[in-house]
Design a protein that fits this description.
Chain B: This is Short-chain amide or branched-chain amino acid ABC transporter permease component. The structure holds 2 protein chains of 2 kinds. The N and C termini of chain A lie far apart (about 95 Å). Chain A has helices at about 1-30, 35-50, 55-65, 110-125, 130-145, 150-160, 165-180, 185-200, 200-210, 215-265, 275-295, 300-325, 335-355, 380-405, 405-415, 415-420, 425-450, 460-475, 480-500, 500-520, and strands spanning about 65-70, 75-80, 85-90, 95-100, 105, 370-375, 375-380. By secondary structure, chain A is mainly α. The chains are: A mainly alpha, B mainly alpha. The interface of A and B includes residues 333, 349 and 504 of A.
Chain lengths: ~525, ~375
């Protein structure tokens, strides 16, 4: 019985609480319109004391100059221009209060002193917000503004804070305020330590400021902290380059791995490889269009459907090319090069005729958008997935070539065609399927690249030379060589970029490869033996 | 002896080609300058420039055929040499503009003034003299080819690998020339030329003069190439194409022979580029694009690699087709070009000029098939 009463009371309170608050707040809000600046300031302080988030929009309206007093009854309202008059709303509840003539309301004026109070109050109120993210953002805002007025609010908020991440953000904000103001030495040195721990660009900027002002002890601490922060930044910079290199490397790997099959395993130079990638990207676009049309709710899964579709479409085109053109040209690699170049031109034009020359928009599923931070690194999910995907494809291909009957046939045909034929392997069919496999993998690459590149008829062109470089650099006929080649070229490219710029970096990489091939004409992991000369 | 060397390579095909060129060298000036503009025989300046452009491409195709058809080096980067020659000429033409540019700077080309450069870069010096530019037209592509070939042939990069790195070479050059701070006009390249050797570059007579120069260059290139091919040196080159390791085994230093042919071919391509630029009026980095190199390869393939006359024919025919198709059916041009690549490699491996020989080969081939059982009985 007693317990039931308690529950009831709690339920009643929970229902009544907002309105009760609103009732309490209303007179305070009314106080804003009292007249003089000092009275307004008092009213703001009163509102701030409640610590109620419902106050925030009121004070924001005051800051924006939207808060007015209705002359007829002295009520404080939000007035927004509507036609010749104003549309009125209640500042607390947001309820519409009808329209009013321009003369029926009077704006609540604020001066600079009030403006400071307002922003400090707003900072403090958001620092007290029940939502942890809002609190953290408020702390970050204070960190950037270094507003000394927010110090008290920060201290109060810190005392109450339980969330570890928000707490850290608040401590850093407090340190930045202390360092910017004229706090005692001990506080400043403590603040320097906090910022040193944060260790990013912003912290370095703050510390740089602190190193020029204040007492010797504080200066000293700041200088030491700067050195430490810079070391840390350099370390993260290197990590960043490494990540970008890995990311670029995995894109190269995706684009080149199909080529490694057709060029490396079959000895066919497929200049239309880039177009297979492009077809995969357009397949993604079509699958997404279908999802947009018929199942918009399942859009996030469109990529998963696009993968097999792209593989099959590109693979089928590959098989068709092999059956119609390439099978007549085995053993004449330079002529496959010419014929497939012709095919690539025709395929590009075909896509341009069907889809138009402009870029097509391919959306990213929600689980591929956004980013997370890892120390000083910002890693986007899209890139992360592409890295994961590239390695998955590589692993799958490796397993397929080593552990399956199909893979065994491919290797048998590659090593000794006539012997394989004599053993009952249908070499013609293996050729077609191998070419289809290489093209299908290019299609998979197209799905991934559609997420980071423009889906246009020229998509493939951008990757063909890089892909060849990777395969040639890594050594033909060796999947591991392709992996090492892609990662090495991606890494070198990204490490050169900060010093040489993107274009010059790329030129240097190309020159490096040209020179490298002079040293090792058969690539990094060259096949040895008599097959090489063939 | 020198005349014997040059006349050695001339056969019936050469006679036909040189006669056609001689007729062009006489007829085009007469038709362009000697007839009234409304006469049906009149050639407009535009047509003259177009014909000149075709012949420049023919010279490029000829130079490519020298290395591909006779030494077996498929270069996917010959546009690099062509364009470098073009840039050398373009620099001379740029310097001739003098103070007539938009900014009126007597020394600096407009794009440098625009980029706030105050001094001419060192590599632009000397290009105000025609003789210097004319040397550079051959020297720059020649030196690049020599350096590249020296590395490549010595370490025995062959076949597909060589093709791919030549492509990388021209791609790298394209990226480099697109940069503004290279000092070659970046994206826009060199254009807005005024005069060459003191003649107005727009006037009909200058255009005709340039055309005749191109005809002469093409004829000279053809005579030179056929002389090289017919000489003992040419025999070694052909042997290298067919079985390099055997030739090396016989004691020939094959890389030197290849290097010679490669460098010579690059110089010829440079001349072609130099004649191309004043007739088209612009040179920009997109000429370096791997696609234009590969297009040159198709001219050779269509005409017939290893025939010298074939590439000339192929270049003119394909480019005429290009002019026609891009005007009449722009959508179809890439289909047509792509189809040409496929069909020629599949059905005309020896090109148009090789067609007759190909057909002749077919008949005896059937005869040997019927003769086979007899052979087996003998065994």
């Amino acid at each position: 019985m007693h317990r039931a009463f308690c529950w009831l009371l709690a339920a009643f309170l929970a229902l009544a609480a907002p309105s009760a608050f609103a009732a309490d707040l209303a007179p305070l809000v009314r106080g804003l319109g009292a007249g003089s600046y000092t009275e307004t300031e008092k009213a703001i302080a009163g509102l701030a004391e409640t610590g109620d988030p419902a106050v925030v929009p009121v004070i924001e309206a005051l800051q924006a100059g939207d808060l007015h007093v209705r002359k007829s009854d002295g009520a404080v309202v939000v007035a927004k221009r509507a036609g010749s008059g104003y549309a009125l709303t209640d500042p607390l509840t947001g309820a519409a209060l009808g329209e009013a003539d321009r003369n029926a309301v009077e704006k609540i004026r604020i001066n600079n002193a009030l403006r400071r109070t307002i922003s400090a109050t707003l900072g403090a109120l958001t620092l007290m917000s029940p939502d942890a993210n809002t609190r953290r953002q408020a702390a970050e805002a204070v960190f950037k503004s270094r507003d000394a007025n927010a110090l008290d609010a920060l201290n109060t908020a810190l005392a109450k804070e339980t969330d570890e991440r928000v707490r850290r953000a608040m401590t850093q904000a407090r340190a930045s305020v202390l360092l910017a103001g004229d706090a005692p030495d001990a506080d400043k040195i403590a603040a320097v330590a906090v910022l040193q721990e944060r260790g990013d660009q912003d912290a370095r900027a703050l510390l740089n400021g602190a190193a020029n002002t204040g007492s010797d002890a504080a200066k000293d601490a700041a200088t030491k902290a700067i050195a430490s922060v810079e070391q840390r930044l350099a370390l993260w910079g290197a990590a960043q380059n490494l990540w970008y290199g890995l990311s670029l490397g995995s894109v190269l790997l995706l684009a080149a791995i199909g080529l490694a099959v057709t060029f490396g395993v079959m000895g066919v130079i497929n200049m239309a490889h880039g177009e297979m990638v492009m077809i995969g990207a357009y397949a993604t676009f079509l699958v997404q269009e279908a999802f947009r049309q018929w199942a918009p709710g399942l859009f996030d899964f469109s990529i998963l459907v696009a993968l097999p579709v792209a593989f099959l479409v590109s693979g089928a085109v590959g098989v068709a090319i092999e059956r119609s053109v390439i099978r007549w040209l085995y053993g004449r690699p330079l002529e496959t090069l010419l014929a497939t170049w012709g095919l690539s031109l025709a395929l590009q034009q075909a896509v341009r005729s069907i889809f138009g020359p402009t870029n097509r928009e391919v959306g990213a599923p929600s689980w591929m958008s956004g980013a997370f931070e890892l120390g000083g690194l910002t890693i986007t999910y899209g890139r992360l997935w592409i890295v994961v995907f590239a390695f998955l494809v590589f692993g799958a291909l490796l397993v397929a070539l080593r552990k399956t009957w199909f893979g065994l046939s491919i290797r048998a045909v590659t090593q000794n065609r006539s012997m394989a034929n004599a053993m009952g392997i249908r070499t013609a069919r293996v050729d077609a399927l191998t070419f289809g496999l290489g093209s299908g993998i290019a299609g998979l690459a197209g799905v991934a690249l559609s997420q980071i590149d423009n889906v246009s008829p020229n998509l493939g062109q951008g990757y063909i030379i890089d892909s060849f470089m990777v395969v040639v650099f890594g050594g033909v006929g060796n999947l591991w060589g392709t992996l090492v080649g892609a990662l090495a070229l991606g890494g070198v490219n990204k490490f050169l970029e900060p010093y040489a710029g993107a274009v010059l970096g790329k030129i240097l990489v190309l020159i490096f490869i040209i020179l490298f091939i002079q040293r090792r004409p058969r690539g990094l992991f060259a096949l040895k033996g008599r097959a090489v000369e063939a | 002896m020198l005349t014997r060397f040059f006349l050695m390579g001339l056969d019936k095909k050469a006679g036909v080609l040189l006669t056609v060129l001689a007729v062009l060298a006489v007829a085009v000036p007469v038709m362009a300058l000697g007839t009234a503009p409304d006469s049906p025989w009149h050639l407009s300046t535009h047509t003259v420039a177009l014909l000149g452009k075709y012949l420049c491409f023919a010279l490029l195709a000829l130079s490519l055929d020298l290395v591909w058809g006779f030494v077996g080096i498929l270069s996917l980067g010959h546009a690099a040499f062509f364009t470098l020659g073009g840039y050398a000429m373009g620099m001379y033409l740029m310097r001739q503009i003098g103070s007539r540019g938009m900014y009126g700077n007597a020394d600096l080309p407009d794009f440098m003034v625009f980029l706030n450069w105050t001094e001419l870069p060192w590599y632009w010096h000397g290009f105000d003299q025609f003789w210097f530019a004319a040397i550079m037209v051959m020297l720059v592509p020649g030196l690049l080819a020599f350096a590249f070939g020296w590395f490549a042939f010595r370490s025995r990069v062959t076949g597909v690998y060589l093709s791919i790195i030549t492509q990388a070479l021209t791609f790298a050059l394209m990226l480099a020339f697109f940069r503004n701070d290279m000092g070659f006009g970046g994206n826009n390249g060199l254009t807005d030329f005024k005069e060459i050797l003191g003649f107005d570059i727009q006037s009909a007579s200058t255009r005709v003069g340039l055309f005749v120069a191109t005809v002469v260059a093409l004829a000279a290139g053809y005579i030179l190439a056929s002389a090289v091919v017919a000489s003992k040196l040419g025999k070694v080159l052909i042997a290298v194409r067919d079985a390099e390791s055997r030739v090396r085994f016989l004691g020939y230093e094959t890389d030197r022979y290849k290097l010679f042919a490669w460098t010579l071919s690059a110089c010829m391509a440079g001349v072609a580029g130099a004649l191309y630029v004043p007739q088209v009026g612009i040179i920009n980095p997109s000429e370096f694009s791997p696609a234009s190199s590969i297009e040159a390869v198709i001219w050779v393939a269509v005409g017939g690699r290893g025939t010298l006359a074939g590439p000339v024919l192929g270049a003119v025919l394909v480019n005429f087709g290009k002019s026609y198709f891009t005007a009449a059916l722009p959508e179809l041009w890439l289909f047509a070009l792509g189809g040409l690549f496929v069909l020629v490699t599949l059905f005309l491996p020896r090109g148009i000029l090789g067609l007759a020989a190909q057909l002749r080969d077919r008949l005896p081939a059937r005869a040997t098939v019927t003769a086979k059982p007899v052979d087996q009985k003998g065994v």
